[in-house]
C-alpha cells in the first residue's frame, strides 16, 4: 500500500536562529559513503555525489575560556590547541583537592570554544547539516560568524541546519561555544563536544533526520509484520515524481522481503508507509541477537537521491504485574547494571571501543540489561547493545531541574520535555535492545518535581513518538504511590530497600522493576580487618574493604538483593548500582575521594571481588572459583584472616599449605551463635504501639522496640530466665550506634547491678558507622539492661535487636551471605599457599590458588587485544601488574610505573582504580594500586604499523609488549 503527500506535523520545519530540531543518524550509512578525509582546509566534496556523511572529528581548535569574537571568521585561533573529537576538556585535570568529590574534583565548570575550518564545493540547493550527539553544555553553534543553532541539554542529540549559513563553494568556519556554568550535576558530567559530530550533506529532497521508523506489531513463530514509515523532506519549491524502495536483508545477507512505491512528493514534509511480511522470522533475543537490515532508497526523477540502512530486531516484549518481564513469550529475569556515561580515565569523551569493553566485561559477569543512568547514552552504545543482546532502559533525565539543564522552571516542563524526550525517542526507537523509556530518576514532589499531571504530560510526549514500548520512572518515594503520581506510567522502577512493597499493595496491576539495587561499596584489592559488623561499618582509612560487607546506608549488599529477587518474582529484575566505578559521587568519603566505590569493577574495568560473586550467581554456566582476600598479611601471622570463596559450585574445601581447613557448603550458616535473649521476657520504660519491647528479642532485624517519646531517659531490659555465662552483648539500633548514649548493665537478681559498658553520643565516623554496638564481656548474669542517657537530635530510643551471646558473635544481617559465598571466618594466617577445590553436585568443578608474594621484582603487561585498527578510535587496555622474582602477583605493590609507547599510537590515559588518587589521567606514569594499574593506548588514525609498549620502574625489571595497528 502506498500513501503519499504532506505529512502531518511529525518533523517541524527548522527555524533559523532558534532551537534546532534535533536528529541524527539511524545507523545511517547514507547512500554515498562515509568519507575519511578531513583536515583543516580540506575540500569536503565531490559534487557528483549528492549525499555524504562525514565524521567531523579531526582538526578542531580548542581553548578554555570565553575570548571575545571567537565566533568570527577571521578570529586568530592559531594559539589554541588542536584536538580530536570526542573531546572532554576537564579530564586532563588537574584535580582540585579542596573541592567535594561529587563531580570528580575535576575542572569541568566554565566556558570552552571549538573552531574548525573547512571548504565545500557543492552545487547550489544542497542541504548541509551538522549532527551533534552530545555537547556539555548549552552549546551555541556559529557558522561563518552567525548563530546557526543552539541546544539546552548536555545529554541529548541535536541537528543544526547549516544550509543558510555555509558557503557551498569555498571556505567555512564553524565555532562552537560550550558553557557548563549553569549545568547542575550529582556526578562528573564532562565538558565540551564529548560525543561525535557528523557533517551531513544531502540533496534538496532527502530522508528526514531520524526519519525511518520501524515497528513489528505482529510476530509469531511463522511470520512477522514489519511496519515502516519514512519521513521525506522536499526543500524544492515544486512537486517531484519519486519512488521509494525497501529491501529487508537478514544477518546472512539474504534479501527476505522488498517493496517499492511510486508517487509524487510535494514541497515540505511527506511520509511514506509500507508493510512487509516475512515468514519464519529469526528472533532478536539476549542469547541470539539476530539483526535484520532494512535499506530504504529514495529515487527522485529516476535518480537515487538518498538511502538509509537501518538495523532492526524482531522480538516481543511484555512487562507483567505478577510475572516480571517477558521476551519473546518467556520470562527473562533482568540481571542489569546502571552505568553512568563517563569512561573512567577517558572521562566523558566517548569511545566506541571503551564502551564495547565495558559491555563485554559486564556481559561476562552475566549481565543482560543496562540502565543508562540518568540520561540517553551515545548512540553507539545502543548499537552495541543491539548486537550483543543487552536489554536497555533508556533514560532521559535525572531530576527535572538543574541536572536536566532547567533552571528554576525555565523553560516550561512541556517545552523542555517535548524537545528532549523527542530527541531521545526519535533517535533511539529502532533499537530492538530498548525495552523501556524512562522520564527521570528519583524526582521529588517539590516545586520542580512530579505531580500526577506532570508525569502524565511527560509519558504522553514519549507515547507521541513511540507506543511500542512502556514508559517508566526510577523512584525512591513510596508515598507518591498514593498521590497517583505513577498512574499514567506503564511500569514503575524502584530504587533500594524493597521500597516497591507499597506499590505492590496499592497498584496491583502495574509491573515493577528494581531500577537501583545494592549500592555495595569497595576499593579493589583493599581488605580491612576485623570484618565489618554491619553494612555502614566503614574502615576509617578512606578505602572500603573488598570483603563485600559494606553498602551505603540506604542500600544493601548483593545477597540481600538476590534474596529479594527470589522472594518477589513479580519484580522484573534488578539494575545494580553500579557496574563500573564512575567519576564523582564517592560515597562514603564524599569530600576526600574523587570517584565512586559503588562499581562491581573499578574505574579502569579491573574486577573487584564482587565481580566474581555476581558472576558465580548470574552466569553459573561459566566456571568461577575465586578466593578473597590476597595472602600477604605480614602483620597477621598467627592471627585470624577470614577467607571467602566465590564459586558457581555448591561447596568447596580450603587448604593452607596443604592442610585442609575443612569443607564449606552453601546454605550452611556455621558461625552464628544462638542468641540467648530470643523469646525471653523483655520490658521497657515505654513503648509505641506496634513497637513493643519483645520485638527487640525476636531474632528479626525488620521489627523493633521503640520508646513512645523523644525523652532520652529510657531503658530496655531482658530476663534470660536463669543465670547464663555471657561473652558478648550486641545491640542493633534502628540508626547508627553513634547517635545513642547509654550505659549497659547486668544483674544476677535485679538488685545488684554491674555496669559493663558506658558509651556517649558521638559524631564519628562522619559518614555511616555501624548500627550495632558490640560489647565483649566475661560475666555470669540473668538480667541485662540498657539505660539511655543521651540521644543526638531527632532520634529516640529504638532497638531492632538486643542480643546476648555465650560466645563472640556476628551480625545476623550477613546471614544470607552463607547462601551465596563460602566462608572460612577463622583461618589462622601463615604465609604460603591457599588453595581451594570447588565441587558441584559432589563432583570436582575447579580449583584456585593464591600465594604469598615476595618483594616486587618485575612488571607484567597484559594487553586486552594485540591487533588494533588504525581508525583513531581504537584502544588497547594494558593491565599493569607487579610480580615477585618467582612470578607471583604482588597484591600490595605500589610502585610508580613509567610508560613509553613507540610506533603509531599514543597514551590515551592511565589509571589505577584508586578512588582517592589525584594523579593525572593524561600522563605517562602511574602508581600501582594494590598491585595493579591500567594503561590505555590509542592507535593513530591512518598510520598502521607495529606499536611497542614499554613499562619500567625504579627497582623493577622493565618489560615490553608488541601490538599491531592495521588498515
Ligand atoms: C540513588 C540515585 C543514584 C545514585 C545512587 C547512589 O538514590 O538515584 O543516582 O546517587 O543513589 O547510591
From TrEMBL:
Pfam families: DUF4982, F5_F8_type_C, Glyco_hydro2_C5, Glyco_hydro_2, Glyco_hydro_2_C, Glyco_hydro_2_N. Belongs to the glycosyl hydrolase 2 family. It comes from the Bacteria. GO terms for molecular function: beta-galactosidase activity. The gene is lacZ_3. Gene3D superfamilies: Galactose-binding domain-like, Glycosidases, Immunoglobulins. Residues 1-47 form the signal peptide. Its EC number is 3.2.1.23. This is Beta-galactosidase. Residues 656-807 form the F5/8 type C domain. GO terms for biological process: carbohydrate metabolic process. Keywords: Glycosidase, Hydrolase, Signal.
